[in-house]
Design goal:
Helices cover 34% and strands 20% of the residues. The chain is an alpha/beta fold. The protein is globular and about 45 Å long.
Length: 166
């Protein structure tokens, strides 16, 4: 499996924004999408404020702050996920909406892109069934707040390729 360097995050609420921050802090390029572009812009503004406070407290340098922010790009079109290695969805807990999203993502992302849900309440196996290539689907559940909770639950679907879990 290739190295994950470009992560797409769908949903810019508290979970999606936190996931984007964690990924960018780890040095990954992040593409952030929200159906309401204003939500993504607001999330990036909040992240900038959080990073400013970390600089003030001398927990990170101003250069690190700028590096983190430079790795996050807000997009208003899912077609911008065409070069992602991993896409994590953090949207409303509605199985039909999520299934429709994943079904449409498959025609956009690279064939080896991993598709992931952040859900903690819906069946990962059921969500994976919406994909033609369900072996690349997995649950990656971040705990809230994502930046402060260094715990991520990995939930394979019955269809998930076992190499994704290693």
């Amino acid at each position: 499996m290739r190295k994950t360097e470009h992560i797409g995050v769908i949903g810019a609420g508290s979970m999606g924004a936190g996931i984007a921050q964690v990924a960018a802090t780890a040095g990954c390029k992040v593409t952030l999408f929200d159906q309401q572009k204003s939500a993504a812009i607001s999330a990036l503004d909040k992240l900038s404020s959080i990073l400013d406070r970390l600089v003030e407290k001398e927990r990170i340098s101003n250069d690190k702050r700028n590096d983190i922010l430079s790795l996050i790009t807000i997009v208003d079109d899912l077609n911008q996920f065409h070069s992602t290695d991993l896409v994590i969805e953090a949207i409303v807990e509605d199985i039909d909406i999520k299934k429709k999203l994943f079904s449409s993502l498959e025609s956009i992302v690279p064939e080896d892109c991993i598709l992931a849900t952040n859900t903690s309440s819906l069946s990962v196996t059921d969500l994976a069934s919406s994909c033609e290539k369900s072996s690349r689907f997995i649950g990656i559940h971040f705990f809230n707040p994502a930046l402060l909770m260094p715990l991520v639950e990995v939930i394979p679907a019955l269809q998930t390729d076992s190499s994704l879990v290693k």
